[in-house]
Write the structure tokens for this entry.
Amino acid sequence: MRLLITAGPTREPIDPVRFLSNRSSGRMGYALAEAAHIAGHEVLLISGPVTIPAPSGVQLISVETAREMFDAVRTHLPGCHAAIFSAAVADYRPAQVIAQKIKKSADTLTLQLERTDDILGSVRSQFAFTGFLVGFAAETENLIAHAQDKLQRKGCDLIIANDVSQSGIGFDSLENEVTLCLPGGQTMPLPRQSKTSLAHELIQFISSSLPFVASAKNGHPASSIKPPVNELLATATEAAHAAGKMIKEHFGSDLTVNEMQRHDIKLELDVRSQQLITDMILARFPDHAILGEEGGETGGNGDVEWIVDPIDGTVNYFFSIPHFCVSIAARKRESKELLIGVIFDPMQNETWTVIRGEKAQLNGKPIAVSDRAAMSEAVVTVGFSKSKEALDLGFERYKRIAYEVRKTRMLGSAALAMAYIATGRLDAYVEEQISLWDIAAGQLMVEMGGGKVTLKPSTTKPGTMFICASNGKLPIEEYL
Ligand code: CTP
């Protein structure tokens, strides 16, 4: 993605040798620029005067005044997918810049100041930016209330709030301690840490929020892309069938475990299945990128990114419970627009396919979400995620939902839950922590069938998302 970051202080001239400024070192913004570059993003850093060097690989535009920063942002914002405003922009500047150095004479000197432009505040209203918008709020009192107010006023998707009354964090310090404020009043405190490690966590959080911005909600067909979407779908289906066949062959046998976590299991077969899918896709489209659950990004810099879950429902698979699948989606690299999706359940021999703009199909026949609009009629599946905080949130939600609905189910595969909603077998699915590969293909299937998918960054784990997917008729949101 292309990312714009503002950083550092601004300097507002008083006369040729004096200026008004602040103690911002620029470290937070520079650390964010570096972390974003390392994460593979294209970064444009618009910076006021600082003494630290620009991170390598980042495009730097140096400015002095708030007005110059405003102009640079206005010029460079179009085409960016996200913008982070970390600069400590002067709120006031001298109303007049004196042409000659002011000589000392009287005992007092009065400077008249005027307001500068609010750059972040202009992004939605004046520059009509529609990407992911992040601001900082440095406060000395009522941190969360002020930050939430800023979030709303400036149309941000995220405000990073820090209490600058505490010593050792924030301005001119090496460390920072922030709380993330999200729309809808959600907050997520992050531990005190170096600005470098915080920057990595923030970039991961922002990038994981982005893929979901470009949802298929309006259902319009995929804008032109090469190769044609049906070629993408054919390759995805072939790869899902090959991987599904392989994992089915090993079902019920002794399995090699790569990692046993408290609430999760990673199998060697996950890695092999992903490798098989990756090889099949790259053999056809060598310049496409592959984002897989097992092992990050591989492939080239082409227009298309593939999102692969080689076994969704690994814990079921490990315990010989025959409910798991392979999930593959492709999306446009730039816009993150989902193009196609395939989910294959090798045990039931069920293949779901979807192309953006068309109805999803199950084994070649069109499917649709259910019509059930009353909670008392609904069958809802709730996923229980892996951290204590997420479990606790899940329990609360489960209680609220379970009292209302006909039945609840816990099935163990997010991708199949989505496919089941697209097919009208289930009416809704709620989970606190999911990743892109769990739900990318299913999201397109649900949305193309008239259902609704709401995704928000999870407040319990950076890099994961909260999901509520439904048939679009159930008032499930009221019970979350
Ligand atoms: N900001 C900006 N342009 C300005 C002032 C602030 O882009 N002229 C951005 C900052 O980079 C930061 C956010 O706005 O991301 C909040 O800055 P802050 O000074 O805390 O907020 P203000 O809206 O100026 O609010 P207040 O002075 O009332 O706290």
